[in-house]
Design goal:
CATH class: Alpha Beta
Number of helices: 9
Number of strands: 5
CATH architecture: 2-Layer Sandwich
Strand order of the largest sheet: 3-2-1-4-5
Strand content: 15-25%
Distance between the termini: 16 Å
Shape: globular
Helix content: 40-55%
Structural class: alpha/beta
Oligomer: single chain
């Protein structure tokens, strides 16, 4: 029988890379007034946090939340995850997440490579195949199939009547992000259970 891993990552901009992105910012080419140029750059800088948190090259992982089969929820760093997963890794493992193919897995792969951490990269890369990967259930693809794409927050409200607790990612502490990961992993499990009959 395959192991089912429900996975969610929480991220933030990698502090070492923020300056690189800030240096690449330019004002709109049609602006000539120094005040308008300054305002345009300030606006772009203000939006960097969210942009970099979701860019798999500029983000870093704060925590990885995992539920394996029916075990208790676990929260780990990339290194702790590798130490835990490598000995139990099975080619038949089923990974479940919301937007896992486009965000969580690519970020995990890139962070592992950046940190020189051993992970089953070929297997993980195979999980990111669009539309069908036999070992990956991306609930964003499944729930939004042939429909307008919706966020996990919106889907939870539609199917369970319960919006997620809001979080300000720009000011959130590591503890608040771990708590958010705990909620996301619990909600993803509920959604997985609901849609299991069509998986």
């Amino acid at each position: 029988m395959s192991n089912v891993l429900i996975v969610d990552l929480e991220s933030r901009p990698d502090p070492k890379l923020i300056k690189i992105k800030e240096d690449l910012l330019t004002a709109k080419a049609n602006l000539k007034d120094p005040e308008k140029i300054k305002a345009d750059l300030e606006e772009k800088t203000a939006g960097l946090h969210k942009e970099l948190s979701t860019d798999t090259d500029y983000a870093e992982i704060v925590c990885i939340g995992v539920i394996r089969n029916e075990e208790k929820k676990m929260f780990m760093s990339v290194k702790e995850f590798a130490d835990w997963y490598n000995p139990i890794y099975d080619i038949n493992d089923i990974w479940v997440g919301y937007n896992i193919k486009s965000f969580d897995l690519p970020l995990l792969i890139k962070q592992g490579l950046k940190q020189g951490i051993k992970l089953p990269y070929t297997f993980l890369q195979g999980l990111t195949k669009r539309y069908y990967s036999p070992n990956c259930r991306d609930l964003q693809e499944i729930v939004n199939y042939q429909a307008k794409w919706k966020s996990l927050d919106e889907i939870l409200t539609i199917y369970f009547g319960t919006p997620k607790k809001p979080i300000d990612f720009q000011t959130a502490s590591v503890e608040e992000r771990v708590e958010h990961c705990y909620c996301d992993i619990s909600d993803t499990k509920k959604l997985y259970e609901l849609f299991k009959p069509i998986l």
